[in-house]
Amino acid sequence: RPAPRRQARPGPAPQQDPRGKGQSAAKPVWRMVAAALALVEVVGLVVLVLSPPFQVNDVAVSGARHVSPQQVVEAAGLQTGSSIFTVNGATVRQRLDSTVWIRSSQVTSQLPGRVEITVDEWQPVAVFQPRQGGAVFLDERGDVLGPAGGGAAALPKIQGPTSNLGAGHRAIDPRLLTPLVNVARGLPDLMGQHVVAFQLDRCWNLVMVAGKGWRAMFGRMLTPDDYASLQPKVAALTALRTQVRFDDPSLYVNLMNPSAPAVGHGQDLPPAPTPSPTPSASASHPPSPSGSASPSPSPSPSPRPSPSPTASGIAQCA
Predict the structure, then answer these.
(1) CA 67, CA 31: separation in Å to the nearest integer?
(2) Cβ neighbours around 93 below 10 Å, total
(3) Residue 252 lies in a domain
(4) Half-sphere exposure at residue 317, Cβ-oriented, CA atoms within 13 angstroms
(5) Structure pTM?
(6) What pLDDT, in 10s, does the model give residues 276-285?
(7) Where would a tag sit more exposed on the chain, N or C end, judged by fewer CB atoms within 10 A?
(8) Cα 134 from Cα 128, distance rounded (Å)
(9) Which of 93, 121, 149 is the last residue of a domain?
(10) Residues with Cβ < 8 Å from 282, sequence gap 6 or more?
(11) Which residue range is the domain that position 255 belongs to?
């Protein structure tokens, strides 16, 4: 006979902690409170950023001479009424430094709404007179800064073969510009006369016109070797100052061969061969100095500037 089964008595039901139910109910409440506080902080920050006391209301510009403060502010992209907290100094500097006249800049923000901009401008070192168009200022890189204005008379003048140069375009290689500027600055001490102009014809033959009208012919200036030849040629010119009276406007000095410079007068100049005409060139071209190193008399050094040398143009001048 099977033994009777014992039925287990049900034990007492587990008691729930009353605090757990309260904590579970409190969690959504605290989350909602935290979200509300975060939203309040964001709204407060937006209100603070956009509030009138922190809007840009004063932009101070210093160091600008050739550009106006208003032009600097426009180039910086700053707008009156924008938040001082949104002014990014690096971005503003990048905008300013990409403009033609500005070499470098510094931008600082001051609470509540002031921005200070200090600019360092490129300085004109020469005046370039193109074949067509008005005279322009050049900086030390040979780049066009803008139309020549006040102070142009005190700078070296270069007459060149290029046309209608806009701001930012390179008019002349800086490796040629630098020695030309140095010659213009040093000639008064070396020879007691100033440089009226440097002339570059369509073949880039260089002629210097001095204050008393005489001319120095340096030959072709197209390559770094040509640029480097200027120093010995100028030395050969200054060595002649005790042997030649540089007060005759018809005088010329051919320095294409600096070891044997040739001195002559304008009436001795033979006619120069005329380069092949180009569509943009005039029907007749004024004479230009020969590119050879021979000390024979050179052509007239007062050429009319012509188009810049291209591969075909240089070939025609060879």
Answers:
(1) 57
(2) 18
(3) yes
(4) 26
(5) 0.69
(6) 333 333 333 3
(7) N
(8) 9
(9) 121
(10) 304, 306
(11) 126-270+284-317
